[in-house]
Design a protein that fits this description.
Elements: H1 4-17, E1 26-27, H2 29-33, E2 41-42, H3 48-66
Antiparallel strand pairs: 1-2
Length: 80
C-alpha cells in the first residue's frame, strides 16, 4: 500500500489535472503520527471559486458515469 504522503500527492495531482487546487490538502497530523494503520487525509478549506470548480468537476464526472456506452457503428469491423 502506498504511504499517506503518496496518496495526498496523487490527490493533489488529480485535482490539479481538472483545475482544482485545495491549498490545505494534507495528511492529518494527529492520525498520521499515531499508530492507526490508515491516516486521515484533510481536504481542508478552500475559497468559494474553488468549491464551485469542484462541484462542476464532480457533476461532469457523475454525468459521464450515467451515460450508456455507445454502440459501435453498424459498419465497424467485428472484433477478433
Amino acid at each position: 500500500m502506498r504511504s499517506s504522503e503518496e496518496i495526498v500527492a496523487s490527490l493533489r495531482e488529480a485535482f490539479g489535472a481538472v483545475g482544482v487546487v485545495l491549498p490545505s490538502l494534507c495528511v492529518d497530523p494527529v492520525t498520521g503520527a499515531g499508530k492507526e494503520p490508515y491516516a486521515l487525509v484533510q481536504l481542508g478549506r478552500c475559497n468559494v471559486r474553488t468549491a464551485e470548480r469542484l462541484v462542476a468537476v464532480l457533476r461532469d464526472a457523475a454525468e459521464v458515469r450515467r451515460r450508456p456506452l455507445a454502440a459501435p457503428p453498424a459498419d465497424a469491423p467485428a472484433p477478433r
